[in-house]
Amino acid sequence: MPRAGRVVADNEVYHVLNRGNGRAEVFHKPADFAAFVTLIGEAKERFPVKVLAYCLMSNHFLCGAPHNTCYVKRELM
């Protein structure tokens, strides 16, 4: 059964995350973390995304973004 649609509200900050399958590592070495930060910077140049904060851990990442920039995910995927 599909999940219910998410409520979209203006001026709200959304918690965006992605985790490795089975909590497996997605960042294996320091260069992987650096490459991901570079990708965030490139996305900010291509799209009007505003990342308020982010946290990278070996098996997942988290970030906070205002609602009006969350549509970027569809364009990046």
Automatic annotation (TrEMBL):
GO terms for molecular function: DNA binding; transposase activity. It comes from the Bacteria. It comes from Desulfuromonas soudanensis. InterPro entries: Transposase_17_sf. One of its GO terms (biological process) is DNA transposition. This is Transposase.
